[in-house]
Amino acid sequence: MLSNGLGELLHREAPSHSRFVDLFCGSGAVSWFVAKESRHPVLAVDIQEYGVALARAVIGRTSAVRPSRLKSQFVAPAQLACQTAPYWREANGLDSMGLCPAEWTYRARRLCSTADSGVIFRAYGGHYYSPSQAIALDALMRLLPAKGADREVCLAALLIAASDCAAAPGHTAQPFQPTKTAGTYIQEAWNKDIFLYVCKSLVEICALHAQVRGTASVDDALAVAASLARDDLVFLDPPYAGVHYSRFYHVLETIARGRCGAVSGVGRYPPPEERPASAFSRKGESRGAFERILWSLSKVGCTVIVTFPAGECSNGLSGQTVLTLAERHFRVECTRVDSRFSTLGGNNLLRSARTTIHEMILLLRPANRTSARAAPQQQIGRARHAGNSRLASERAWV
Which domains does the chain possess? Predict the structure, then answer.
C-alpha cells in the first residue's frame, strides 16, 4: 500500500499537519514510514502490545544504533545461556537425528509438554518452534536490555525473528501439522537459526529512526480518537476480519509481554482474558464502532486517511459501508488500488495464503464546521433514508 498510492498521499498531506496519528498501527509499517519521511511526531496506538513494541522501536528515537554493540551485549550472552539451559542437550539431540517431520514433531511435543522451563518452550515448543528454537527465544526474552532504546530495538528484532521462524502459514493462528504436505514446512521452519534471524533484524532496525521523536501506546482507538487535536493527520487501517486479531498474533503478544497463561487448542491459545478483543472485529458491533470513531474525529476536526478492502469483509463491513459512513461526517476523496492481502492462513485448496484484493484509500477532509452534527446513534436513524436512496449510484462508482 505504501508503494501503491498511500505513501504518496502521506507525503502530500503530512506537511500541513502538526502530528501523525496511527490508531491501528499493527506491524508499525505506516508509523515507521511517516516517522522516517517527515518532520512530524508520530503517535502509534494499538490494543496489542507486540504492535506497539514494533512501532516504538523506530518512532521512539532520532538516531541510529550500532548493531554490533547489541549483538555483543544481547545476542552473544543469550547464546551462551542456552548452553546451560535445561533440556538444551535433549533439544539439540532431536535436531541432529534427521527424523521425519512426524517423528520429530511427536518427540518434540513430548519433551516440551513434560518439561518445566521457559514460557516459549512450555507454550509453543514442538508446535510453532523446535525445542532448541524455543530455548533460544526464552533466553533472548530473559536477557533483553532492562530499558530505553536498546530494549525497544532488541525486542522488535526478537519479534520479527520469531515471526520469520514460526512454523505457521503466515500468522500464528495455528502451527503446521506433521502431515505429508505440511511436514516439509515444519522442517524448513525448525531448521532456521533464531540467533541469525535476530542479528539480521537488528541490522535492519538499528539503521532506522524518526526525524522527530514520537510515542507509542497500548490503548483503544475509540478512546484515543476523542482526545486528538484538529491539526492531527489520522490514519485508520482498522480490522476487516470477523475474528479478533489476537488469535493470529498471540505468539508475538506473548513475547512482547514476556508471559503467558496456560495454553489450549490446536493454536496453543492463551486464556481469553489475555487476548485483546476489538469491537471492529465483531460482526454485530463493527458498523457502530466505525461510526463512533468517525464521529469523534469529525467532531475534533481532524483530517483522516482510511484504507479498507472495497468488497464485503467477514466483520460485516464493506468498502461501500465505510464510504457511506464517512460521507456523513467528511468530504471524501476515494482512490481504488489493487493490493496483495493475507487470507489469514489459506489452505491451498479453497484459498491461497495471499490474494489480490481491491482496496480503497479514502481521504476524509473536515466538512463545514459550522454545521451541526448529531451523535452517531441519532444520526444513523436520521440518515437511513438518505443513505439508502443514494446507495445504488455509489455502489456503481465504488
Answer: 2-60+214-239+278-397 (3.40.50.150), 67-206 (no CATH)
